Amino acid sequence: xxxxxxxxxxxxxxxxxxxxxxxxxxxxxxxxxxxxxxxxxxxxxxxxxxxxxxxxxxxxxxxxxxxxxxxxxxxxxxxxxxxxxxxxxxxxxxxxxxxxxxxxxxxxxxxxxxxxxxxxxxxxxxxxxxxxxxxxxxxxxxxxxxxxxxxxxxxxxxxxxxxxxxxxxxxxxxxxxxxxxxxxxxxxxxxxxxxxxxxxxxxxxxxxxxxxxxxxxxxxxxxxxxxxxxxxxxxxxxxxxxxxxxxxxxxxxxxxxxxxxxxxxxxxxxxxxxxxxxxxxxxxxxxxxxxxxxxxxxxxxxxxxxxxxxxxxxxxxxxxxxxxxxxxxxxxxxxxxxxxxxxxxxxxxxxxxxxxxxxxxxxxxxxxxxxxxxxxxxxxxxxxxxxxxxxxxxxxxxxxxxxxxxxxxxxxxxxxxxxxxxxxxxxxxxx
Length: 431
Description:
6% of the residues lie in helices and 61% in strands. It is mainly β. It has helices at residues 2-18, 40-43, 87-91; strands at 33-34, 71-85, 97-114, 117-138, 144-167, 170-191, 196-223, 226-237, 240-254, 260-265, 273-278, 281-290, 294-304, 318-320, 322-332, 347-361, 364-378, 389-400, 408-422. A 14-stranded antiparallel β-barrel has the order 2-3-4-5-6-7-8-12-13-15-16-17-18-19. The chain contains 3 helices and 19 strands. The protein has a single domain (2-422), classed as Beta Barrel (Porin), CATH 2.40.160.
């Protein structure tokens, strides 16, 4: 299994570096369309991350990793279909933009190094940029002026995390990410009465490191219905800076063919090498559950996006304020210990996420609402791999609004992942 996983990993890493990632117009802003950063299992519960167990890793909360007892391989991918609409397009259905895209979400490995600790590492996307936005207006000379905004690129990250149990019921964890990638934007403008159009192209090569730390607390409760556990968690993503090496060119092109006519490099001065500043983020969670039976929890996150800064690319119509999100989700298992009947051991999951992204366009908040459903289907048949599973999450949601000449994005996603378990570091009893 280890050799097969290594070969698959090499292929998937190459695929991740080449994938498009998104086609959302909202990837124009900030660092692009931010990736979920969660396992499929967590995504089916709206992305809540406080819960850790003996057979699943955790990509968001390193403290939850301390409960891991088996080596775990995890890979996830998604298929997403989106519909973009405005007030005008709601009247004329033929003008509604539709599209779909398939992406690899993560590739990771985790294993326990002691009865009280575990380590994980892997690769996942951080953000993606891919958009094409058109704008038409009538100039003061009664000419039709067309402006096109185009962009592409993406940032990936490799990570390493460790979780450790301080005392029974109290875990701490630490995670580090190395991020690298590119972001490119292009602005084209042309008039019907002019032979040549103008172009402004900007390119950034981005890299940097960020860290987070986490704490989870589990308190057993004795009730008439049996043992319940009260769970609480805190995750803090520290503020960090990403280094950006920037380039800019200005030029002209033939409107009839789109071919470049003249292109000039811009002397950026101090902006040739700049820093992108990302604010800190804090996530607090609380939940209640019966071990191996059911769980329900909620997490609330805040991030002061007004502190986000990217001097090289600052869209004129956008500002940032405080971002926040509320996630509520849980799971249910009919009979975890069933020896026969795979349906009894299926884990059913559901969740709801309500998010204010902090982005303001035309002074209008850009918000997101996502509902999710999913399940984990056991696939192992032996004692060593009985806990391996196929994980599925369905998501339906929307982002943005059609107010104030903006776009609303509605989407449906199918997320599929594998969680494969193995035993490492088994001490031999017979030589």
